[in-house]
Every structure is written in structure tokens, then in C-alpha cells.
Specification:
Keywords: Signal
Order of helices and strands: HHHEEEHEHEHEEHEHEHEHHEE
Mean pLDDT: 89
Largest sheet: 7 strands, mixed
Family: Belongs to the bacterial solute-binding protein 3 family.
Number of strands: 12
Number of domains: 2
Organism: Corynebacterium spheniscorum
CATH topology of the largest domain: D-Maltodextrin-Binding Protein, domain 2
Protein name: Polar amino acid transport system substrate-binding protein
Structural class: alpha/beta
CATH architecture of the largest domain: 3-Layer(aba) Sandwich
Shape: globular
Number of helices: 11
Radius of gyration: 19 Å
CATH class of the largest domain: Alpha Beta
Oligomer: single chain
Subcellular location: Cell envelope
Length: about 290
């Protein structure tokens, strides 16, 4: 979150009170914290060192609303934090979010300084080479434009597109499309890569970019809060699961997946997502690397 926050905030206040901002006021109307009881047989699956510590440390990179962002008091909140809080409770643990740069979360999981990631990670084949992903929701990529701009995500050569750095929109959507433009002898796409999704969305609102590419729930959330200055364009594509990365072959993966399955079975999973107005992409079964747990 090092993208010149103070300067950005002043710019937003001066130019556009309806822009996507670095701060949301709080949880949605009617929200309540869901904290299930411990399930002893699932708690027994937790790795001994984590169980002894009593906390599950998770790396997160706000703002990435509605998954994780800071409220007006500076606390990190969001649907993903609510979901992993509930899963941790089932395992007899307290969840402890740790704010980090997005690009540093996976290395921190590798080094053991974090137990897991909880920051809108798309479960991809490339990432699975080094991590297991406990999948919790399906989403795709969705573009947005300024109203009436007529941007076609499949025909964007020569346009400027804003993304959050190192996300799937950056590495697997916009940059490959730009390379294809060049292969066809057309003008490449100019990629504006920012440290946060809200800064990328604001680049579109302020006219610095022709379009904004992000995961579908992120784009929808940004459009809803843009005061009519953004709209969706094109269809959602590249549907894939969001997951919590844990060390490869760790005992934590099955434990966390079992906790998620308990939330699905009790209805707490749907209640948590529903409170954040997420009603699509639900899982019927907890998955590890897109495979149902046994």
C-alpha cells in the first residue's frame, strides 16, 4: 500500500468526491460478526505449532474491497477476513490479519512468517507449483469503462488499461492481450499497473485510463461506489477460484478446507458472503486446488 496515499487522497478530494477511495466507512448495513463454535475433530487436524500458538496469521493487502479494506477507524475488514475468521474459529484459532504488499505475501507463506494468504488470490496452475490453495469462491475477470465509452475487452489494442500490479488481470489478461496486439501488427495496450485496485479504478474515473480490469467482484464493487462514473463493459471471462494459499503439502490445507466445509454445511458460509452482497460463485464443497476434499 505504498502508492503515495496522502497525495492520492488530496487528489481525490480535489477532483472527484465520487471516486473509488482508499477507505470505506465500514461494514454493510445489517452486518454481524459470525463466530462459530470450535469443532474438536477439525481442531485436531491443525498443525501442532499453529495450535500451540492459538492464532492463524494471514497476509492481506487492503484495499481490495469488498474482500479486504480498511474502515474509517483503520481496521482491516471485509468478506474474506470474515470468512477466514469463521474458519479459524472452527479450528479453535483466532485469525490475525497481517498487512503486507501483495507481491510479498506468497514469499512470506513460503518462509513461514505467515500461515496463509487472504488477499483475493486466484488459484492458478502456476501458483499451485509452490502452494496449495483452499478455494472458497469462483470469480472471473471483468472490465469497466467510463459511461458510454464502448470499450471492447476483446478489441483493446491501443487503449490504456489500469490494473492492480501482479494480479491475474495484470499478468494473465491485459499483458497477454497487449502481446497479441503486437503480434498482429497493431498498437499494444498501455498497461497502467498500480499497487492497489482502488487506485487503478480511480485512474479510470479520472480519465487516465480507458478501462479498468479486475476480478469481477472487485470491479462490481468499484462500479457501485463510483457515483455513476464507471460502468461494466463486456462479459465476465476467465472464471477461476479464489483461494487461501498455504505451504505445499502442509497439514494446514486439509484442516482449513475441513473448516470451510463445516461453514458450508451449517450455512454460515452463505450468510457471510450474503452480508457482503456476494450471491454468485458459491462452492457446494470445499476444494483444495479445485479438487473436493475427501
Amino acid at each position: 500500500m505504498s502508492f503515495i496515499r496522502a497525495a492520492s487522497a488530496l487528489l481525490l478530494l480535489g477532483l472527484c468526491s465520487a471516486c473509488v477511495t482508499n477507505e470505506e466507512q465500514g461494514t454493510p448495513e445489517g452486518w454481524s460478526q459470525i463466530t462459530p463454535d470450535v469443532v474438536p475433530e477439525i481442531a485436531a487436524m491443525v498443525p501442532a505449532d499453529i495450535a500451540a500458538r492459538g492464532t492463524l496469521t494471514v497476509g492481506t493487502n487492503p484495499p481490495f474491497a469488498p474482500f479486504e479494506f480498511k474502515n474509517s477507524a483503520g481496521n482491516i475488514i471485509g468478506l474474506e477476513l470474515d470468512l477466514i475468521h469463521a474458519a479459524a474459529a472452527v479450528m479453535g484459532l483466532e485469525s490475525q490479519p497481517v498487512q503486507q504488499d501483495f507481491s510479498m505475501i506468497l514469499p512470506a507463506v513460503t518462509s513461514g512468517s505467515l500461515d496463509a494468504g487472504a488477499s483475493g488470490f486466484t488459484d492458478t496452475d502456476e501458483r499451485r507449483k509452490n502452494y496449495d490453495f483452499v478455494d472458497f469462491l469462483y470469480a472471473g475477470v471483468q472490465w469497466a469503462q467510463q459511461p458510454g465509452s464502448n470499450v471492447d475487452p476483446d478489441n483493446a489494442c491501443g487503449l490504456t488499461v489500469a490494473v492492480q500490479r501482479t494480479t491475474v488481470s495484470d499478468t494473465e489478461d491485459v499483458r497477454p492481450k497487449s502481446e497479441e496486439c503486437e503480434a498482429q501488427g497493431k498498437a499494444p495496450i498501455k498497461v497502467l499497473a498500480y499497487d492497489t485496485s482502488d487506485t487503478a479504478a480511480t485512474a479510470l474515473v479520472l480519465g487516465r485510463a480507458d478501462a479498468f480490469s479486475a476480478d469481477s467482484p472487485i470491479t462490481a464493487w468499484a462500479v457501485e461506489r463510483s457515483g455513476g462514473k464507471m460502468e461494466l463493459t463486456g462479459e465476465m471471462f476467465q472464471a477461476a477460484p479464489y483461494g487461501w494459499p498455504v505451504p505445499k503439502d502442509s497439514e494446514l490445507g486439509p484442516a482449513l478446507a475441513a473448516a470451510l466445509q463445516h461453514l458450508i454445511d451449517t450455512g454460515d458460509y452463505a450468510r457471510i458472503l450474503g452480508q457482503w452482497n456476494i450471491h454468485e460463485g458459491y462452492l457446494e464443497h470445499a476444494l483444495i486446488n479445485e479438487e473436493a476434499i475427501k
